[in-house]
Specification:
The structure holds 2 protein chains of 2 kinds.
Chain A lengths: L1 H23 L19 E2 L7 E2 L9 E6 L4 H15 L4 E6 L3 H11 L8 E2 L3 H5 L7 E5 L5 E6 L4 H13 L6
Chain B lengths: L1 H19 L11 H13 L16 H15 L4 H12 L14 H31 L5 H15 L1 H8 L1
Classes of the chains: A alpha/beta, B mainly alpha.
């Protein structure tokens, strides 16, 4: 008889556990379809010199980081000092300037410092769509063969950089 | 009176407000058929920014861009499947309101059926057990004996029964 009373309790605990796990998940973290796929190609003018262009092929043979940012993006401000640290450790960071105004973007970088090797200027956001960008900031790691090996949605934290980003960046030969 | 009228009008305005949204920009197509396809497609594509809306209802910037791309692709003679594939390659199965069946989404599709089966089996087993209990039960359990006693008491006191009814 006492066992019968346990059943609802067990069901309750099971549901509570499942819902609890659900609460800890980030609904914005939509699994990227681009992992282990070739990085979408694009050619965009540079923010600082619109007569010059950037194309991901220019970085073939090295591991680099693509950070999608905008001057209107509030969480980009939080991750900015962290990105600067990453850049100072010798990582090539390309800052895809997403749906921004050129003068506002340049001013933003002047005020805070520029961690980006280049900032391709994606005014229309069309390249962002190719990369499946949902909301800025987003961060990708592209390997020597031009394949996307890692993606992080949302502002980077010191923990994420140390535990996820740096290990991927320091992995010189992709285990395949 | 004026205040009441204002409140009433505000109420009506709020009530009808959602219908006033919908697709924001006017999109033109060469044929009516293309327009129909466009309308249906954007109903079925999820806005990845405001996740519980389709791109037809969302006024997020990205939804607007995706609507424009869908319109362009339809004008270029691309099929519905091609538009969906374009979206899916970039944003994953998540953009499709009609979730495709694959290993990743299997739980969503099969989960309810599995739960229903478990419940049905549970009900079946319980009913079966109860039926068997009834058959196996001794004819005069404590409960039955009590009942017989009560019935006898009532039978032996018919007058009491009659008088209480009056």
């Amino acid at each position: 008889m006492s066992k019968k009373f346990l059943i609802p309790l067990i069901v309750f605990i099971a549901i509570a556990l499942l819902l609890g796990i659900g609460l800890t998940m980030n609904p914005r973290a939509i699994p990227s379809t681009l992992i282990s796929k070739p990085a979408p190609n694009f050619t965009l003018p540079l923010l600082h010199d619109q007569t010059r262009a950037f194309n991901p092929d220019q970085l073939r043979g090295q591991r680099w980081l693509l950070n999608v940012w905008a001057s209107w993006c509030v969480s980009c401000r939080y991750e900015h000092p962290l990105l600067t640290e990453v850049a100072n450790s010798g990582v090539t960071i390309i800052g895809l300037n997403y749906k921004d105004k050129a003068d506002a973007a340049i001013q933003w970088l002047n005020e805070r410092g520029n961690p980006y090797t280049h900032s391709p200027f994606d005014e229309s956001g069309r390249v962002g769509i190719e990369w499946g960008v949902i909301a800025v900031p987003e961060t990708f790691v592209i390997d020597e063969q031009g394949v996307i090996v890692y993606k992080y949605t949302g502002p980077l934290t010191a923990e994420v950089i140390q535990q996820e980003l740096m290990p991927v960046l320091n992995q010189t030969e992709a285990p395949r | 009176m004026k205040n009441m009228l204002l409140t009433l009008l505000t109420g009506i305005a709020i009530f009808f407000a959602p219908t006033a949204f919908g697709v924001i920009e006017a999109v033109e197509f060469e044929t009516l058929q293309q327009e129909e396809r466009y309308k249906q497609l954007i109903e079925e594509l999820r806005c990845v920014v405001c996740q519980n809306q389709n791109i037809a209802d969302s006024d997020a910037d990205l939804a607007k861009d995706l609507r424009a791309i869908a319109a362009d692709m339809i004008r270029d003679g691309k099929s519905d499947a091609e538009v969906k594939t374009f979206m899916r390659e970039r944003y994953g199965d998540f953009v499709l309101y009609r979730t495709p069946f694959n290993s990743y989404t299997a739980l969503i599709w099969l989960g309810p059926i599995v739960v229903l089966l478990i419940v049905l089996i549970g009900v079946f087993v319980t009913l079966r057990r109860r039926q068997q209990d009834e058959l196996v039960k001794p004819a005069h359990s404590d409960n039955d004996q009590e009942r017989i006693k009560v019935r006898n008491l009532l039978r032996d006191a018919p007058n009491l029964n009659e008088s209480s009814r009056k």
